[in-house]
Amino acid sequence: MNADAPSPHAAAPSHYLRFHLPHQHLSAAFGNDWFGLKAERFARFFGTPTFIIVQTIVVAVWIALNAAGVVKFDLYPFILLNLAFSLQAAYAAPLILLAQTRQADRDKAHADADAQHREALAKASQERLDVAAGHTTLLLELLQQNTELTQLSVKLSERIETLTAQVHSHLLAHEKPNEN
Hints:
- Helices cover 74% and strands 0% of the residues.
- By secondary structure, it is an all-alpha fold.
- It has a domain at 24-136.
- The radius of gyration is 43 Å and the shape is rod-shaped.
């Protein structure tokens, strides 16, 4: 591996949610103070089955107690109950709308961060493919050079054998006349 080339893992930040950091201020829909946290919990509680069941039980008990005459603080037509529902609606609707709006903002911010993350992954993947292609090209060049060196070695070996044979035949030719 090239000593000047940085390791692919060295440049990668260690925080895997780094693309979400610019949108971290959107974490709580109503702010991060105690009121904001309670308001968001309250807005989220409105749509739960628990809230609907508890509200149904409270209204049924309210109507039963007042209609039966056990208590007489809100007789038929239950004006106080109607006022309580109106007050609940006056606070619930804006809280729910605000929670939905802020949740949509958080969803959009997270979608943007996820898109940036996917884009960074695609870029890193392309860079790895480019490096692999470069390594493949280099490997093919090295194989070609190895093949050429092997062929040259074979030619030189053949040439050495030819020269050795010529030297031997020349030596044999010069030794025979001396024997006579």
